[in-house]
Design goal:
Elements lengths: L1 H38 L11 E6 L4 E6 L3 E4 L5 E4 L7 E10 L6 H9 L7 E5 L5 E11 L2 E15 L2 E12 L6 H16 L1 E2 L3
Antiparallel strand pairs: 1-2, 2-10, 3-4, 4-5, 5-9, 6-7, 7-8, 8-9
Length: 201
């Protein structure tokens, strides 16, 4: 019995050690991915050739995606877009409408977005069309694997009382976070997000 308990404790200690190592590697990967993502140069504007327009939820958000990409829509209103050739890489979109009487103007919205994350973990940009863009990176797990979640929150003040936020997320396997393909996907998604338009009514 004692031998069994010692074996059990040794197994638990080994599992704890490797779980801790995995968490540390994941944290390091996210920190590096965040630094790369937030410091990246603004990409060139989206070229509409070879793209199709999506009127998400009846035009609540309009965006362009490559003609070859697939589209899936969830009953709750979320959408997933992706290149069938690049399995496991999907751009997800969902929207949030915030009703805050007298507190949803552009300045208030910028303050709200800026307060969602510590300053060194995000980048908030005012776009020429009046929309705001907040970018950040998180660690996650999907289907039992570690992933890096690149997130773009595109926001527009619809009125002094209402704002809309379109949340775009690209999930990438942690081991692929620094590949050339991920860098290309990230730049492509950023161009798509920056060209997207949230309805102002």
């Amino acid at each position: 019995m004692v031998r069994f308990l010692v074996l059990l404790l040794a197994m638990a200690a080994t599992w704890w050690y490797f779980a801790r190592q995995r968490r540390e590697r994941s944290r390091d990967a996210v920190a590096r991915a965040r630094a790369d993502f937030l410091a990246a140069a603004v990409p060139e504007p989206l070229d509409g050739r070879g793209m199709k327009e999506i009127a998400y939820r009846g035009g609540l958000v309009r965006l362009l995606i490559p003609e070859t990409w697939s589209e899936e829509y969830e009953p709750d209103g979320g959408a997933t877009f992706g290149d069938p050739v690049s399995q496991g890489r999907a751009l997800r979109l969902h929207t949030i409408t915030a009703d805050k009487p007298g507190g949803a103007g552009r300045e208030e919205l910028a303050f709200l977005l800026g307060s969602l994350r510590p300053r060194d973990e995000c980048a908030l940009t005012s776009l020429p069309d009046g929309q705001l863009l907040l970018k950040h990176v998180d660690a996650g797990r999907e289907a039992g694997a570690d992933v890096v979640l690149y997130t773009w929150q595109l926001a527009r003040s619809v009125s002094p009382d209402r704002a809309r936020i379109a949340v775009f997320t690209l999930a990438v396997a942690a081991e692929d976070a620094f590949s050339a393909l991920t860098n290309d996907d990230r730049r492509r998604v950023e161009r798509i997000v920056r060209a997207a338009r949230i309805a102002d009514a």
